[in-house]
């Protein structure tokens, strides 16, 4: 696998401004539409988070932002959203964690392991090469693009496999965010149950905010917690794949993995997850004043809307055709299987 280029220096403020302003414009439009909904219908049927994604996708479909916008949109989609997720740690109510039950952590680990096996099996049955099947399985079962990027060097996946897997999850992830809340009335899920279900199925940590916000604060808190616990499984999974890999081969049973290398710790446990857990601990200890909690919630909300706009601007719906039919089928079927497994865990643990 070719070596990835060294990270570029942090962009300067002038380089960031065009993209950040573009995302801010999309975010303001989303907030304005939400306000209009509330005036016309008495409530917002589509939250600003979801509207920001939709507007961003619409803009991207009509116009592809040039190079000068890239630094700011990337910064908004990644760094600002990571800050927003970290700030959410201060909003986690310890009672919410306890209400989920002690078996939830073990259950999440079991879901990830079972989903990995099922997803890999689906990929192989559909004729995907071992490495590609493993990339799709890790992306679906753990945390989307982050899991794909962390797993690729360990199993010796080439650039084409990684690009195909990431191209599809970028689009499918947004579709999941938009469609998942529609399952609440169909499946008869409570706010707590939906939070667990969303946390077990949504691809990326940031996307959990948009997927759960339409249902309520409890779903946001539970969903974020479950998703973060699921992300923490990335470290053990990558280490296990590295130990299973044969010399000169890969964990998926392919050949030619001589370029394997173990990803750095910061990729396995991102800084914003540690920050989230630290703030959640401080909240549980009662050392964060109420004024600071209110400010953190407001800041997290604003940053998230801006970042969802950046996420929409980064989605090219034409990428679906580039991923290939077998990859598409494997990802969709694996996601459906993950949803069934997640619902099974909810019933098994008796989460109400």
Automatic annotation (TrEMBL):
InterPro entries: UPF0324_pro (IPR018383). Keywords: Cell membrane, Membrane, Transmembrane, Transmembrane helix. It is found in: Cell membrane. Pfam families: Cons_hypoth698 (PF03601). The keyword Ribosomal protein does not apply. The chain crosses the membrane at residues 12-32, 44-63, 104-122, 134-156, 162-184, 196-216, 228-247, 268-288, 294-315, 327-349. The keyword Transmembrane applies. It is a multi-pass membrane protein. Belongs to the UPF0324 family. PANTHER family: INNER MEMBRANE PROTEIN YEIH-RELATED, UPF0324 INNER MEMBRANE PROTEIN YEIH. This is Sulfate exporter family transporter. It comes from Azospirillum isscasi.
């Amino acid at each position: 696998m070719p070596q990835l280029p060294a990270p570029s220096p942090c962009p300067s403020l002038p380089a960031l401004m065009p993209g950040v302003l573009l995302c801010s414009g999309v975010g303001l439009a989303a907030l304005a539409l939400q306000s209009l909904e509330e005036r016309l219908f008495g409530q917002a049927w589509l939250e600003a988070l979801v509207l920001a994604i939709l507007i961003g996708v619409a803009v991207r479909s009509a116009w592809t932002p040039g190079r000068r916008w890239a630094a700011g949109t990337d910064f908004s989609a990644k760094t600002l959203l990571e800050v927003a997720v970290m700030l959410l740690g201060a909003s986690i109510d310890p009672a919410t964690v306890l209400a989920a039950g002690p078996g939830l952590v073990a259950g999440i680990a079991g879901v990830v392991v079972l989903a990995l096996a099922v997803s890999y099996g689906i990929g192989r049955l559909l004729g995907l090469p071992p490495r590609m099947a493993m990339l799709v399985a890790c992306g679906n079962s753990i945390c989307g693009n982050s899991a794909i990027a962390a797993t690729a060097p360990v199993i010796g996946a080439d650039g084409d496999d990684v690009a195909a897997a990431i191209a599809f999850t970028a689009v499918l992830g947004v579709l999941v965010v938009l469609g998942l809340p529609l399952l609440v009335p169909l499946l008869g899920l409570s706010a707590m149950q939906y939070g667990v279900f969303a946390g077990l199925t949504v691809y990326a940590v940031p996307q959990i905010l948009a997927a759960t916000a339409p249902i309520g604060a409890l779903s946001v808190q539970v969903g974020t917690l479950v998703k973060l616990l699921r992300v923490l499984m990335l470290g053990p999974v990558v280490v296990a794949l590295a130990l299973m890999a044969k010399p000169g081969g890969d964990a998926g049973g392919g050949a030619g993995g001589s370029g394997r290398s173990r990803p750095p710790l910061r990729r396995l446990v991102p800084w914003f997850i540690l920050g989230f857990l630290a703030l959640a601990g401080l909240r549980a200890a009662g050392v964060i004043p109420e004024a600071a909690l209110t400010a953190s919630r407001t800041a997290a909300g604003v940053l998230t809307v801006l970042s969802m706009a950046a996420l929409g601007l980064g989605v090219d719906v034409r990428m679906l055709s580039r991923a290939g039919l077998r990859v598409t089928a494997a990802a969709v079927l694996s996601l459906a299987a993950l949803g069934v497994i997640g619902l099974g865990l909810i019933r098994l643990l008796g989460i109400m």
